[in-house]
Specification:
mainly alpha; two-stranded antiparallel sheet; 4 helices; 2 strands; coiled coil
Length: about 110
C-alpha cells in the first residue's frame, strides 16, 4: 500500500513538466507563467519532502522496534557456560551476565 502512495507521489516531477508545457500554450505573460510554474513546483517539492519525512519516521520506528525485539530475544536465550571442571552449566542469559562474559573473554 505504501508503494502505491510513493509511486503516485513520484509522478510529481512529470506533472510539473506537463504543467510547463500547458502553461506555455496559454496566452498569459511569460513572467506570470513562470511565477505560476515555480509556485506549483514549490508546492510539489514540499509535498515530496513531507512524504520523505514520513517515510524516515516510519523507518526509524521500525528500526527501534527491531532493536527492542532483538534485546528482548537475547535476554531470554539460554547460554552454555563452561566450568573449570569441563562440565557445562546452562544458565539464563541476563544482560549483567552478558557483560561479565564479554569481560572474561577479553581478559582471557
Amino acid at each position: 500500500m505504501a508503494s502505491k502512495k510513493v509511486a503516485s507521489k513520484s509522478s510529481v516531477a512529470n506533472d510539473a513538466y506537463i504543467g510547463l508545457i500547458t502553461c506555455s500554450r496559454s496566452k498569459e505573460s511569460p513572467r506570470s507563467r513562470i511565477k505560476d510554474t515555480m509556485a506549483e513546483m514549490e508546492r510539489k517539492i514540499n509535498l515530496l519532502v513531507k512524504v520523505m519525512e514520513e517515510q524516515d519516521h516510519e523507518i526509524a520506528a521500525l528500526r527501534e522496534k527491531m532493536q527492542t525485539r532483538e534485546i528482548a530475544e537475547s535476554s531470554q536465550t539460554l547460554m552454555v557456560k563452561a566450568t573449570d571442571k569441563g562440565k557445562n552449566v546452562v544458565q539464563e542469559n541476563q544482560p549483567e551476565q552478558q557483560l561479565a562474559s564479554v569481560a572474561s573473554l577479553l581478559v582471557q
